[in-house]
Amino acid sequence: MSLKNIHIENFRQFRSLKLEKLSGITLIGGKNGAGKTSALEGIYLAATEVSSKKFEEFESRRRQPESILNVSAKDFPAPWAMLFPIGVEAREIKFNYENMEDKSFELIIRQIDDVSELSDHEQSIVRSHDTSPGELKNILICETQCPIGKPHKHSTLMLNHNRVTQQIKVNRDALPSPHSIGAGGVYFVSTQDWSAINELNKLYSNLKKTAGAYEKFIEIMQVMDSNIASIEILEYRNQFQLHVTNQSGSLPISHAGDGALRIALYAATILASENAVVLIDEIENGLHYSLLSELWEALNKACEITGSQLVATTHSAECIRAAAQNVDDERFTYIRLDQLSNSSTHAEYYSNSDAIESLNAGIPIR
């Protein structure tokens, strides 16, 4: 089942953020720096297994230069340092969230600099996995609690030692799988370069196995180009990628424009898994406003077919309007985030009719 609400504490720029009334289609807006991307990252981190790969993924999404990612351990002591708010002494991140079945989950992430703060059991695990010389510092403890039947607790240690990040699972089998909000998985859609092409190939292969998914995928792609007749994976310059076939012939999707790649990723991610949670940052990027109405109608239908939830951010009033006009009220929520002077974050909620009325009145809600 999907996400109903989430409370985020001491993550990125958030001292405290509560997101409630999350629906089948949820749009998040607000000014630059309000925390739209951070909210998606918080959901992604809280609802999936914490790993060093995720820290690298977050930095890649924010397009940090390689020189920043590879600075010395002295200057940048741990790859997870960016998760904690700058200038805040609290060294514990908390995520509390509830799914549509009213089951609550909690993830606590805290960092320590002294191995003596660990329990005896955890210390023995650390020592058995670390034989390199030097003092062990920069340890991240991730604890997930999940009341399914009876409370379960799953702990993971992340060690950053001699510039090598190592992950150790404690109580590996204590937590039922899947424990996340999306029974079909939680996906943060990336549209960056060849990583997006490779991901699209995998998603396309999965959706071809689901009855009716390919036909719906073609229908969504035809929102961009009504002449599209078929899509298949072909080799192009020693790389396999999707090719779009229309009246002019076959074209690699990397040559079909940024909009085609984005729409294909959105559609394939939703259609390839049932009961998933799909996260998309700045969903309107690369798309002409004239496509947005039909696109939202198609994405909403895809979410209904698969039972999946879509949470996306936007800067666009046209995007908000198109979503509000094409998604039923009980399935739609728009949330505007604002940073307050006391460093807290305020969330204001709009139904589809509220959003449309505010936009018509010229009220700046994006």
Structure description:
With 366 residues, the protein is an alpha+beta fold. The chain is 30% helix and 31% strand. It has 10 helices and 16 strands. It has helices at 36-47, 52-61, 66-69, 120-129, 193-207, 213-221, 258-272, 292-306, 317-326, 352-360; strands spanning 3-11, 14-19, 25-30, 92-99, 104-112, 139-148, 150-161, 164-170, 186-188, 230-236, 239-246, 249-252, 277-280, 309-313, 332-339, 345-350. The strands form 3 sheets. It has a 7-stranded antiparallel beta sheet with strand order 2-1-4-5-6-7-8, sandwiched between helices. Strands 9-13-14-3-15-16 form a 6-stranded mixed beta sheet, with helices on both faces. A hairpin with a 1-residue loop joins strand 6 and strand 7 (150-161). The longest helix has 15 residues, at 193-207. The radius of gyration is 22 Å and the shape is globular. The protein starts with a strand and ends in a 6-residue tail after the last helix.
User: In percent terms, what proportion of residues is strand?
Assistant: 25-35%
Number of helices, counting only DSSP H or I runs of 4 residues or more: 10
Largest sheet: 7 strands, antiparallel
The counted number of beta strands is 16
Low-confidence stretches: none
Structural class: alpha+beta
Global Rg: 22 Å
H/E element order: EEEHHHEEHEEEEHHEEEHEHEHEEH
Average pLDDT across residues?
A: 82
Strand order of the largest sheet: 2-1-4-5-6-7-8
Instruction: Give the fraction of residues assigned to helices.
Output: 25-40%
Distance between the termini: 28 Å
- Rough shape? globular
